[in-house]
Amino acid sequence: MNGTWISSSPHDLRPLPERIDALLPQTQCRQCGHPGCMPYAQAIVEGEGIGKCPPGGQATVRALARLLGVAEVPVESGIAEPPVRVAHIREAECIGCTKCIQACPVDAIVGAAKLMHTVISAECTGCDLCLEPCPVDCIDMLETAPEQARDRQHKADHARQRFLRRQARLRLGEQRERQERQASSEQRAHHARLAPARERLPEQRRDEHADALKKLRIAANMAQVALSKALKQLASRPNPQLQAQVEQLRGASEKAQAELAQATQHPAATAPVARPAGVEALRRAKIHLVSCRSALKKARQEGTDETRLQALGEALAEAERQLHAAEEASGKPPPDLQRTYKRPVTAASQALKTELAFARADLSRLQRDPQSAPARLAAAQARLRLAEQRLERLEGPAGPS
């Protein structure tokens, strides 16, 4: 067992680990406790037992014992003739995660990210390594036909070559990634050496400047968010306290934006756009009008006395006059308003429109179902035509819009 060469033929002069590996089934399944068939072959040379290959069964143990000149032992799995299995992916359940592709030692699974995967049955070694990483458990191991099981040993050399090619490709990819990272690092170092000394800040000062700029951006964003929330609250629940809070938050937001612009040394790009005085007055007049309308509506809903309602109505009228004056003083062109003519909605028209919507939905559902009976489709189409005709008779031709 400790010799380097053992040959059952005068012409077979391969090293012992390679001759042992040639007798293994090349599933690379790791069930023997080693990362592949060749590592297990090397462990056998060093004295490990020959019965630790479940896929090979008793036939592999017998071949190893004959090669090494030792006594045959029972296979540790207890299954003398294990079934030959191949993986099968339930393609309808596959989510395209590529985890099984990465786990397959012989590249017997094809597919791409977010696309369905499938197993090349003729290349699968039945190693079971794709089962565990599958997050949706959509892989089954199926037994092959007896004639395929008998052909297993003849395919072992082919499986070994696929495994070795995959290992070589992975090593090449890792080497390429290391070279790209090294080249990128050298390029950054080269640019740093070429930069003038006066343009390079010390590392500590650069980090402090970046941290301060990040804090100013966060403060400016938070101030703007707080102002937006306060404006929404003011529109729904107008009161003097919220109005004062809005003005205070607006000042804080403008201050934060100014500090951020100064820190970035590009005030023209980051400073808030100042509104003309007339436009700002118009905006405030609109907010005041909304507040007065909301206060009057709330008072009516609560059944407030007539004196209070009259005062709120006068305040609303005054807010409207202030808005008109602000619109004239702002210099903005008046909005181009166009009147839209709509038919009055009656109970009858609403019922017909509801029936029309249901008829369209039923027809669409039946058209999408390939098993829909032609009679049901015809009935749904007739129902839709009838609903359209009834609605057209009720409303007549459409008016201008």
From TrEMBL:
What keywords tag this UniProt record? 4Fe-4S, Cell inner membrane, Cell membrane, Coiled coil, Electron transport, Iron, Iron-sulfur, Membrane, Metal-binding, Repeat, Translocase, Transport
InterPro entries per the UniProt record, alphabetical: 4Fe-4S_dom, 4Fe4S_Fe-S-bd, 4Fe4S_Fe_S_CS, Elect_transpt_cplx_RnfB/RsxB, RnfB_subfamily
Report the source organism. Answer: Stutzerimonas kirkiae
Q: Where do the 4Fe-4S domain residues begin and end?
A: 12-70
The UniProt entry, under NCBIfam families, shows: PRK05113.1, rnfB
Region Disordered, as annotated, extends over 170-207, 321-342
- Under what name is this protein listed? Electron transport complex subunit RsxB
The highest taxon in the source lineage is Bacteria
Task: Output the Pfam families linked to this UniProt entry.
Answer: Fer4_21, FeS
Q: Where is the composition biased (Basic and acidic residues)?
A: 171-189, 196-207, 321-330
Coiled coil listed as a keyword: yes
Which residue intervals define the domain 4Fe-4S ferredoxin-type in the entry?
85-114, 116-144
The terms under GO molecular function for this entry are: 4 iron, 4 sulfur cluster binding; electron transfer activity; metal ion binding
State the coiled-coil residue ranges.
239-266
